[in-house]
Amino acid sequence: PRTGEFSGENIRLGSRGDSYYEYLIKVWLQQGSSRDYHLKFLHEMYEEAMKGVRHLLVRKSIPKGLVFIGELPYGSKGTFSPKMDHL
Questions:
Q1: Which of 2, 48, 55, 57 is deepest in the core (most CB within 10 A)?
Q2: What whole-number distance in Å separates Cα of residue 5 and Cα of residue 83?
Q3: What angle do CA 14, 40, 19 make, to 5 degrees?
Q4: Which residues of 46-66 are buried (b: 16+ CB within 10 A; e: fewer)?
């Protein structure tokens, strides 16, 4: 896709999806970031995806308020699952 929007039913990071987002920003940074205007779309896609991550997957634990990332195994309309794969 040409956007950073989630697609499909499973919305998660960890071993099933983090590499894609990691490489969006890594390639943009390694190729000179602001010098290479034609690669700006990589940064834009990363930023758009991270907005979605913050909105849909980032939560705070109760009662301590620790920040963590969970999953939406049944899409954005499904129930939040407070788990994440580790690498």
A1: 57
A2: 21
A3: 15
A4: beebeeebeebbeeeeeeeee
Amino acid at 19: S
Tens-place pLDDT, residues 50-80: 998 999 999 999 999 999 999 998 888 889 9
DSSP letter for 2, please: -
**Integer CA distances (angstroms), 19 to 15, 35, 61, 62, 64, in order:** 8, 24, 26, 29, 30
Global pTM reads: 0.76
Q: Find the distance separating the first CA and the last CA of the chain, reported in whole Å.
A: 25
Summarize pLDDT for 38-47 with one digit per residue, the tens. Answer: 788 888 989 9
Identify whether the C-beta of residue 13 lies closer than 8 Å to the C-beta of residue 21: yes
Take residue 73 and report the two structure tokens written for it. Answer: 């195994």
